[in-house]
Design goal:
Layout (H helix, E strand, L loop, with lengths): L7 H7 L2 E2 L4 H7 L13 H4 L1 H14 L3 E3 L7 H6 L4 H19 L6 E6 L2 H5 L13 H17 L4 E7 L2 H11 L6 E5 L1 E2 L2 E2 L5 H6 L7 E7 L6 H12 L3 E4 L5 E3 L4 E3 L9 H7 L1 E4 L7 H11 L1
Parallel strand pairs: 1-12, 2-3, 3-4, 4-5, 5-8, 8-9, 9-12
Antiparallel strand pairs: 6-7, 10-11
Length: 299
């Protein structure tokens, strides 16, 4: 008999949990072209086996949570490549099923359905700026249908990730409030502020009294900034903290290229743990080798 899967919130109360790393860098390393606006989400339609292979690779490396390839997926984006509403919903659900199949029957492996920011679907770097000129109601209307479809595929958690703006965080949390699935809320950040310029203390406070949020924190920020952000998230929210920095390289949205040195190192893990982190992994340009080293550092 297959043992029941432990709720992720319960696992966080017992100790740290390892997240995976970047999906796109592993797919690119496997030879896939991710240059279009759908990014890795395109392969949900064109090469689902490739997405599943990356999930399996991360689990083999020691990850316990697979984040789905739905970060840049949207109804509008799929429509631009000819997918109707029915197919678009199927592709969103497929992102969850691929990760679930890769996780297998293990009681301590989980699937996080990625809910990326509105700016991600614009494919112009807007997720690193926020302030799209939309109201909270308009942002809620964008996020709610996608989140509802993802939740219908029964992930263990919705990963509301790389959010650049407090207003968008409030809108997304409102959009998912009626869904029977826990969430984590993770901001993109720099120098103690969201990418839209709000103090991180204000951003983390959004989650403090929300029982649906099982963890709050940061992702896709420079690794050297992570420990201060983790400590602040723990202090302000009183919740377990999620942290998954990028490699430390810089992304140029105009040239669509990375530059600068990589500063991600598993040796930083102990400081993140001490500061309150319980979900730890990597984001852009952090691959399976780094997640393997991180997992060994933790365990």
């Amino acid at each position: 008999m297959t043992p029941p899967r432990i709720p992720l919130a319960a696992a966080l109360a017992e100790g740290p949990v390892v997240l995976d790393g970047g999906m796109s860098n592993e797919l690119a390393a496997d030879g896939h072209d991710l240059s279009d606006a759908l990014w890795s989400a395109r392969l949900l339609r064109d090469a689902p086996d490739a997405v599943a292979a990356v999930h399996r690779r991360y689990f083999a490396a020691g990850a316990q949570v697979a984040i789905t390839a739905s970060y840049q997926a949207s109804f509008g984006g799929f429509a631009r490549v000819g997918a109707d509403r029915v197919e678009s919903e199927e592709l969103l659900r497929r992102s969850v099923s691929l990760a679930r199949e890769a996780a297998g029957d293990a009681a301590d492996r989980w699937v996080a359905a990625s809910v990326g920011p509105y700016g991600a679907v614009l494919a112009d770097g807007s997720e690193y700026r926020g302030r799209y000129g939309l109201t909270r109601a308009e942002l809620r209307a964008f996020h709610a249908p996608r989140a509802e479809v993802l939740a219908s595929a029964a992930p263990d958690v919705l990963a509301i990730e790389t959010i650049p703006d407090v207003d968008e965080a409030i809108a997304v949390l409102d959009a998912v409030a009626g869904l029977d699935v826990p969430v984590w809320l993770s901001y993109s950040a720099a120098e103690g502020h969201t990418r839209a310029g709000q103090p991180l203390a204000e951003a983390f406070a959004v989650a403090r009294d929300n029982p649906q949020v099982i963890a709050v924190g940061v992702n896709c920020l420079a690794p050297e900034e992570a420990v201060d952000a983790v400590a602040l998230a723990a202090e302000v929210s009183g919740k377990p903290v999620v942290v998954y920095p990028n490699s430390g390289e810089g992304w140029n949205a105009t040239t669509r290229a990375w530059s600068g040195p990589a500063t991600f190192s598993p040796t930083r893990v102990s400081s993140w743990l001490s500061a309150g982190a319980r979900l730890l992994g990597g984001c852009c340009r952090v691959g399976a080798d780094q997640i393997s080293a991180l997992s060994k550092e933790l365990h």
